[in-house]
Amino acid sequence: MPTSAPPGNRFERRRAETRGALVRAARQILGETGDTSVSIQVIAERADVGFGSFYNHFDSKTELFEAAVRDALEEYGRTFDERLAGIDDPAELVATGFRLSARMAESHPELMQVLRRRGLGHIHSDNGLARRARRDVEVGMASGRFTAVDPIVALSALGGTLLSLVELRFARPDVDGDAAAVNLAEMVLRMLGVPPDDAHEVARRPLPDLA
């Protein structure tokens, strides 16, 4: 879960802990069922906080669930920052992102279920993986690695394909997730203008460890 600077006093620490517990409870609900119609009482009980504490942090369930989605997407983005550090090739960054996402369906199921159910509305947000993906696309275009197109359009194509891959991993567990991710990674690289032989090789480079 995302962390921030430690609050300066006991009251602020307790307040931050309560808010974090509510966000974690909302993330669990989104990951398990996606049912945002649950009562505030149920959320508070799962978070192990008092019912009245809810309104000290959020005006509505909608606000809480949006905070939970942002929290999950930021964790998703930070996971990629940690695993992809040192990779300079924009094409490899894109391909590795697809392949790691497929594996995270098993290693980080709650997070990826949140992405599966709520990710479409955040493809063009300024948090989580979206801003990182746009940065990598723009670097790839500036360097000539990718064909120069509208980055927003490219991000729409990448985000939609990634969400389709995540859906495939959960809806069809019988399908080889690694193989599907490699094939999709190669396809999106070719879509971005990477030559076929190059896209084939990049999509099969060794992956960083998710452990």
From TrEMBL:
DNA-binding region of this protein: 39-58
UniProt domain HTH tetR-type: residue ranges: 16-76
Keywords: DNA-binding
Pfam families given in the database record: TetR_C_40 (PF21306), TetR_N (PF00440)
Superkingdom field: Bacteria
PROSITE patterns for the chain: HTH_TETR_2 (PS50977)
Protein name: TetR/AcrR family transcriptional regulator
Lineage: Bacteria, Bacillati, Actinomycetota, Actinomycetes, Kitasatosporales
